[in-house]
């Protein structure tokens, strides 16, 4: 995971002298023009980025092509009308056959969708519309593009379920246009053989249709350590390298070595390189297997005990967390209960859901975060309106002061009720707290509801800088390094192009962490970390040195971290 | 021209799976069949895109039409299909 502390090679180091553990550019890039004027070698021998995980794999590249721009209206046809019609219909048939093939290996629900898409590609009315256009002298690509227009409009006009199918139609159209133009089909590639997925970036919509059992590794040109790809890779234990400049130049099907530990992508590697890299990864894996067992706390250099806890979304994650050796939960994201419903979950539904998690950790600890909402994740019963900048808007605890306070009251009451006679201890914290006054307001509410320990998330630099005052009002704090990094570095977490700035290991972020940990030590109050930084072995060691008392992460990351910290 | 008027039984209407099942059956039929609903032009029952575009909801009435030898049988089969729940 060394890459987690270093910038992608074509970008300037984040902060020259002060940034820790950023090797000299020449060292990282193998002399391939890093930092200098863009001299992209025709066949770069190594590409570097930010590694997620520690595994190394060898496999064929499957490129996720970006959709092409629409073919221009005046595009010259390659032949006469008959020839163009033939090209257009052949492209549609290729797409239909591909969809059918994928339907054959998909689950029943996905198969229905894929088969319906294949039927659309073979639709006789669509073929008629294509022919009418090619007969009028329109080029095949453009004819395919325009032929979809009428159907697209009809579906869009219907709205509702059919309106949502417009995206399916657009996906189909982009595929057929690409095939007609002799280019790879856009979208998540489907292969029989396991592959290394190479993409510009991955959105949740892409990974939802991705069969992860066939994915050996994820490699993206954009994205940082907290990007969707990185979080998915950690959660599923798939090695990944993100923020890899130049990776889209790899050829589809080319063999690459992906070494997540060093943040390396090696195209067409020599045999001895493959053998050495795989041997190193195997040694790491074995060290993790022998050192990663166990469930106890880690012992810091000064003799303090540091708990390794799991991030969970609900009862469904408990088994994986326990199997990974977590004796508790450092971040229970309660918002999953609230998503996808038109009304807030009832008191009883909440008690049952919270209890399910508490029951999984007898003798342990569960830290629940109250509902985290914002304009970027709107809930039907919590309309926060449009905001020009949701990251700086009415979000987290801010959303529950005023009209929606009753939602928080119900949640606190349900959490308190779930904790009665539960086998695990329950702590409850509020997200996105900025001031000591907010901290005091929340703690008073939580205590009044019957919750024994009330705390706050430290994600806002203001709260970190006034940690003494904030912690004085509560029983504990947990540092959310993803948002703390975003706000400290003024770099949007969702912007792949700012991956290099989304560095939780930057001294600016680490100094804030140190302030909070020191305040906790003075006041005798626990201070945990529950961002992605906690899962990075080198960063985790630094966080422990700074004085944090627990680290919470995706369950899949726990054994490896335990092994790294105990060796 | 022979026709059948039928209420669509599937709760989701002629969307998703029911639409695909119906269009597949119509494509396999010996004769071309059209399907229409009130206020919209008849469309080919072999076109999934056109059938979806009709936006037929559960319980709505549609008119099936076909012409030629065996039209009655073809219509009978397709009409019966629409009175079944095709969501399963």
Walk me through the structure.
- The complex is a heterodimer of chains A (567) and B (88).
- With 567 residues, chain A is α/β, with parallel strands linked by helices.
- Chain A has 19 helices and 17 strands.
- In chain A, the strands form 2 sheets. An 8-stranded mixed β-sheet of chain A has the order 1-8-7-3-4-5-6-2. An 8-stranded parallel β-barrel of chain A has the order 10-11-12-13-14-15-16-17, surrounded by 5 helices.
- In chain A, α2 packs across α5, α4 packs across α5 and α5 packs antiparallel against α6.
- The longest helix of chain A is centred in the N-terminal third of the chain and has 24 residues, at 81-104.
- The radius of gyration of chain A is 26 Å and the shape is globular.
- Mean pLDDT of chain A is 84; it is low at 1-43.
- Chain B has 88 residues and is of the alpha+beta class.
- Chain B has a single domain (3-82), classed as Histidine-containing Protein, Chain: A, CATH 3.30.1340.
- Chain B has helices at 16-28, 48-54, 71-82, and strands at 3-7, 33-37, 43-44, 61-66.
- In chain B, strands 1-4-2-3 form a 4-stranded antiparallel β-sheet, with helices on one face.
- The longest helix of chain B has 13 residues, at 16-28.
- The model of chain B has no long low-confidence stretch (mean pLDDT 91).
- Chain A binds chain B through residues 112, 115-116, 119-120, 123-126, 151, 154-155, 158, 161-162, 165, 169, and chain B through 12, 15-17, 19-20, 23-24, 43-44, 46-50, 52-53, 55.
